[in-house]
């Protein structure tokens, strides 16, 4: 057989595996080297046992015997054989045995530590006792070399028996054909039973089939509980570390006479090796044949077992069994809780490999119990889910819970989005999730409505900016009208939490008007949250105001610098301070009056000022032909003296040359249109419908500096219908000659130059004085009399 295998592999040029790391030689059995390996067929991890010896060496015969026995042996607690290769390498015969991936027992115990492993050791010993009972009682075979080196551990921490090099028939025909006889020298002396050490093969044959292996089992117990390989036979007398309930069985296994040694089957039936961990694993292994009530009772008790189980055992033994039971439908949904509890102890990389694939499959289950378990524990495993898996495989199954008839499942689905939502794409968020949230915000369950607002506030950072501006305030202000107080509180806190997405205009026009009524809410929590919200956005608006003031100051500084430069270049002797126009520079600019200088009004030469005063005195005198209503006649006004015209042309306010061709009227209309856009004058239709009138022959002299902006005639007529009769055209400065009341009823200019008060003509008393500079800009102050505005 072996020669045929050698021919098939062609001299060793194509081994069916790749050799990896070698385990320490101290853990190897009877000269075998133990390697990690990888199968070339499916890239699965395997173990490779290798032994090399010259041709004719007794070790090769023992190795061939062990390979043959291992290949033909089938038992749950016996190592699984996969491949055998025998070939020549460097004048030596080399035998390779490929098996399932295993680790020497001594290495596993060394990595596990000495705490909380009592149940696991009993369970492992129970597996080996079961295998020995099968060999001796059912097969009449003698293993002949039971020790720690003959035990290996699988990836799921199951103990497996191997090392069958000395395996022999109990009722052998000739001792010379007995492998135990030919290769007993391979076994260390401390592991040999008395009859084997004395080479009394007849005593071996006359004794029970388990006689030799019972001694070896006692040695194994000593090694397992001490944690180190047996160094000498005298160490078997030490019983300090052997559990008390196993002590009498341990002593019977090491009896000096083979006939008095304990049958492994009796030890198995005694139940001393059975414990909760062993029962749990046995139940999971036979789960398919258990009743439903038994399953429910078992999985309810299973979480209480975890504290007494070593973490390594829970991760590598229980977790795979639970995963299989849940995945294939053998376990009830409550088992998911235990699986996730064990999963918490795994490293992130192992968790992604072992747990995440199982959970992904479970989300597709239609079982409400499984879905509930998944959603209740999503905070545990959710962060480990890859974004792509959530988007493509999980979200669609979870989203079905938004419309579930069970309110609890709807709420669990909603809460799960706090973990899954950040892993979704913008398309899924805007086109799917937000639509579900909009429906849940009007759900019949009050708690769902409140939690929807909370979730939306938490997800704001994952939404696009345009989506935030479109959705957030609409959703949060809707929550403010909810009859459930926690929903209103959630809305208020969400508005504050997402304040960076709300502009100053939104704060002033939408947030504060919606929040202010809640400041007097009947519920204390709502009132407190509303006041906090108002204070927050009031501070935001104050900051916005400061920013605007800063920008305006920078603009004015730039304009002042430009004006100073122009004054220095074109009018070095002019004065630029003190005029009211400077404080309303923005209004002058909008009216198209920026080309006029304040110095032209307030800083005239004495001669020009005297001429202007005389012209104004003429305008203030009663005009013949004035109608009783105080309106001007339609006839043009007489021309002024040439000197006055010259003075007017010198200051920029009285030059009417530009109005002769209608350009002044166009400028006035444009100014009215700009004021209309600003919302401070009359309607555009009223401004555009004013009739064009002829210009007086002589330019009117502008009012002196003491009258300034005090006359409302230039602004009040923007808010009243155009008169039936034609009106005089105003001067370029906007101070048109206006009809006056009779001297006894109207106010007039008086006092020193620069005064902002008018007094009745010829008298110092009369009606209350009107403040200078009042304008119809929405910020001006009207006169004390109610008819001051309607009159014009």
Question: What's the arrangement of secondary structure elements?
Answer:
Layout: H1 2-9, E1 17-22, E2 33-39, E3 45-53, H2 58-72, E4 81-89, E5 92-100, E6 102-104, H3 105-112, H4 118-138, E7 141-142, E8 151-154, E9 159-161, E10 168-169, H5 179-182, H6 194-197, H7 201-206, H8 211-226, H9 244-253, H10 264-270, H11 276-285, H12 292-301, H13 311-327, H14 335-343, H15 348-354, H16 356-362, H17 368-376, H18 378-381, H19 387-399, H20 407-420, H21 426-440, H22 446-459, H23 465-480, H24 485-497, H25 504-515, H26 524-570, H27 580-583, H28 585-591, H29 598-602, H30 606-620, H31 642-651, H32 663-678, H33 684-688, H34 713-716, E11 748-749, E12 758-759, H35 787-791
Antiparallel strand pairs: 1-2, 2-3, 3-5, 4-5, 6-8, 7-10, 8-9, 11-12
Helix pairs in contact: 4-8, 4-10, 13-14, 17-20, 20-22, 22-23, 22-24, 23-24, 24-26, 25-26, 30-31
